[in-house]
Amino acid sequence: MDRAYRPLWIALAALATFAMFFVAAGLAGWWQPAANEQPIGEASRWCERVSDGVMREPINTLGNLGFVVAGLAMLLVLAKDTRTGKQRVNPFIGNQPIALLYAGATIYLGPGSMLMHGSNTRFGAWADNLSMVMYILIPWIYNLAVMGRWRDRTFFAAYGAVVGGFAVGYWIFGAGLGINLDLFGISIALWLISELLYRFWSTPVRWLSGLLGFLVAAIFGIGPHTIFSQPAEHWWVVLFWLPALTARSAPSSQRNYWPWFPAGVTAFLLAYVIWTTGVPDHASCNPDGLYQAHAVWHLLTAVATWCFFRFLRSQHRRELESQSPAR
Predict the structure, then answer these.
(1) φ, ψ for residue 92 (rounded to 5)?
(2) Is the pLDDT of residue 124 over 50?
(3) How far apart are CA 39 and CA 64, in angstroms?
(4) Cβ-contact 39, 52 below 8 angstroms
(5) Using one digit for the tens of pLDDT, what is the confidence trace for 276-287?
(6) Do 97 and 159 form a contact (C-beta atoms < 8 A)?
(7) Residue 156 contacts by C-beta under 8 Å, 6 or more apart in sequence?
(8) What integer is the mean pLDDT of 133-139?
(9) Residue 88 has pLDDT above 70, yes or no
(10) With contact defined as beta carbons under 8 Å apart, do 118 and 57 qualify?
């Protein structure tokens, strides 16, 4: 076996094992559905009618194959990098740990969400939310690692601690972790805030960067008035300044933002708009139709993961004349 392709073969073997488990569990009827899921024959929370077959929501489940294809394509690209001996100054080029983590997390978005839409169980919801958090943590924690001058082991320790804490907290306390914290949602804001700092690092920008979080929250329907009128419920806004506290210096590398970063953001925002229509009380919901908005959400967000992968691969060392941090 070509060592460069070993991660790809491992991923394929893991997916084959998952597929066997998934089909076996489906044929056995899965197990007790979650309390917030609809019974067989009714429209699910995501519009599609609940089936008594192997998959409770077949179209929404199969839409997650987009993540599997995207992640496997990433592993193929990384293997080719390694085989051709591309320069490895960028941790997203070649079979390097952070690149493999990103590709692996992208792949797991598929099975994680399949377990939710395929089984409608509490375990499935846990696996789905865990997969989303495992993916979204990578870019912003990596940005903090770059600007905080962390070693790789510090990055992985921080990432593992947050993932582990979320996994336990979600299982025991549910989506808000018992403290009204939507870790996936706040991570979107932290990614964009940390990306702002990565691109425009300076002391003033560092301490003003948290304000961007309020704009991100507003885009997703939580305006400043709501936040400040209910401060105890929205305490998490203080986390908007986490990148400022950690990003102690300008990055020694830079990225090419065009075209992949805006392409990824556009794909995600379009997916989100479509996601809002994939609910039973929306006028466009047809529980028995082949078109399911939630499945399209999966496919478009899979496209976004690929775009961000290409964006992160554009990272390169700054030119000598721009090495010194902006002031």
Answers:
(1) -105, 15
(2) yes
(3) 22
(4) no
(5) 999 999 999 999
(6) no
(7) 97, 101
(8) 98
(9) no
(10) yes
pLDDT (tens digit per residue) in 182-220: 999 999 999 999 999 999 999 999 999 999 999 999 999
The dihedral over CA atoms of 42, 43, 46, 51, expressed in degrees to the nearest 10, equals 50
Structure tokens belonging to residue 80 = 């080719």
Q: Which amino acid is at 254?
A: Q
The first and second tokens of residue 2, run together, are 């070509």
Query: Looking at per-residue confidence, does 184 or 84 come out higher?
Result: 184
Give the domains, in start order, of the chain with CATH numbers.
43-322 (1.20.1070)
Spatial CA neighbour of 143 closest among 209, 219, 77: 209
